[in-house]
Amino acid sequence: MYERLPIFAAALWWGSLSAIGFMAVPMLFANLGNPTVAGNMAAKLFAAQTWVTVACCVVLLLLSKRRHAEQEEGWAKNGLIFVIGGLLLALLVQYGVSPRIVARQDLRLWHTVGTVMYALQWVCAAGLLWLLGKRAP
Fold first, then answer.
1. pTM confidence score
2. Where are the alpha helices (DSSP H) in the chain?
3. Under a CB-based contact definition with an 8 Å cutoff, are residues 56 and 9 in contact?
4. I need a labelling partner for 65 at 20 to 30 A (CA). Which of 24, 103, 118, 132 fits?
5. Each residue's pLDDT tens digit, 63-117
6. CA proximity to 132, closest of 16, 20, 2, 19
7. Cα distances (Å, whole numbers) of residue 72 to 18, 32, 60, 91, 130
8. What is the DSSP string of 34-63?
């Protein structure tokens, strides 16, 4: 069971990023008549997604080394870069980029930066999931 928990956490992380970023938020803008209302709801979804990311990454960090083990898990050697990178990207988007979008500072620039950082976070989650899938029992 212990060996499957990192796969589950990575799948939850990647799946939630995919569902929010590629389905739920575009649906908001396509179906709500007012872009301001859609944007406010999207901001709330992205904030919730940040906490899903934080939870999944903390679980992955905790699972990267068993208690009293001298070495980290096999997947952690290459996988922790994805975990830490994705976690940092999520926090930077939430606390660095999002406030600028809410304040309506240079919207085109900050939406682009946020989108790129979200996509990189998705790549981190996908890379980790791919890595964990290769070594699945």
1. 0.90
2. 5-19, 25-31, 35-63, 76-92, 98-102, 107-134
3. yes
4. 118
5. 888 766 667 777 888 899 999 999 999 999 999 999 999 898 999 999 999 999 9
6. 2
7. 29, 47, 12, 25, 19
8. -HHHHHHHHHHHHHHHHHHHHHHHHHHHHH
